[in-house]
Design a protein that fits this description.
This protein is an all-alpha fold. The chain is built from five helices and two strands. α3 packs antiparallel against α4.
C-alpha cells in the first residue's frame, strides 16, 4: 500500500504541477477554465491521498533504513518531512487562494467544498504567490528526491529502486 500511495501521489503531483504551469499563461477561455477545475480537483485529491498516506505511514512500520552515512540519513528524513509538509500546505494554499478569489471548488463537479477564508482580493494575491512558491519548493524537493534515488541506484547500487518498484518482485 505504501508503494502504491507513493507512486499514485508522485503521478498526481507531477500532473498537477504540469497542468498548473501550462494553464496560467493561457488566455481566458473554456479550455483554461476546464484546466483550472482539473487542477483544483487534483489538488483536493492530493490532499485527501496525502492524509491517507500519512495515516498509513503512522500506523504501519516502515522498512529499515538503508545503510548510509548519518548526514545522508538526516538529509533524507528532512527531505521527506518537508515533502509531507508541502503535500498538505500546497493544496491548502491553493484552496485558500480559490476561496479568497471568490472561485468555489466543486470537487469533480459534484461535491462543493466550503470556503475557509473570506473573499478578499488582496489576500487572494498573497495566497496565489504562496501557492506558486510552495509548488516550486515541492518541485525542488521532488527533484532532490529523484536525484538521491538515482544516486542510490547508480552509485551505491543498494537496491533502493527495486524496493520501491510498483512492479511485483520476481523470485
Amino acid at each position: 500500500m505504501a508503494i502504491a500511495l507513493h507512486w499514485l501521489l508522485a503521478l498526481a503531483i507531477v500532473g498537477a504541477f504540469g497542468v498548473g504551469i501550462y494553464m496560467v499563461d493561457l488566455p481566458f477561455s473554456p479550455s483554461r477554465l476546464k484546466l483550472y477545475n482539473w487542477h483544483k480537483w487534483a489538488g483536493v485529491s492530493i490532499l485527501a491521498l496525502s492524509g491517507f498516506r500519512l495515516l498509513w505511514r503512522l500506523t504501519h512500520k516502515q522498512p529499515a533504513d538503508l545503510p548510509m552515512p548519518a548526514w545522508q540519513a538526516r538529509a533524507a528524513h528532512l527531505t521527506h518531512l518537508l515533502m509531507y509538509l508541502l503535500f498538505f500546505a500546497l493544496p491548502l494554499a491553493g484552496w485558500a487562494y480559490s476561496s479568497a478569489a471568490g472561485f468555489p471548488i466543486v470537487w469533480f463537479g459534484v461535491l462543493p467544498l466550503p470556503d475557509f477564508v473570506p473573499v478578499d482580493k488582496a489576500l487572494a494575491e498573497t495566497l496565489k504567490l504562496s501557492h506558486k512558491l510552495l509548488a516550486y519548493g515541492l518541485a525542488g524537493l521532488v527533484l532532490m528526491h529523484i536525484a538521491a534515488a538515482l544516486k542510490h541506484q547508480v552509485v551505491d547500487r543498494d537496491g533502493l529502486l527495486a524496493r520501491m518498484s510498483p512492479l511485483p518482485k520476481r523470485g
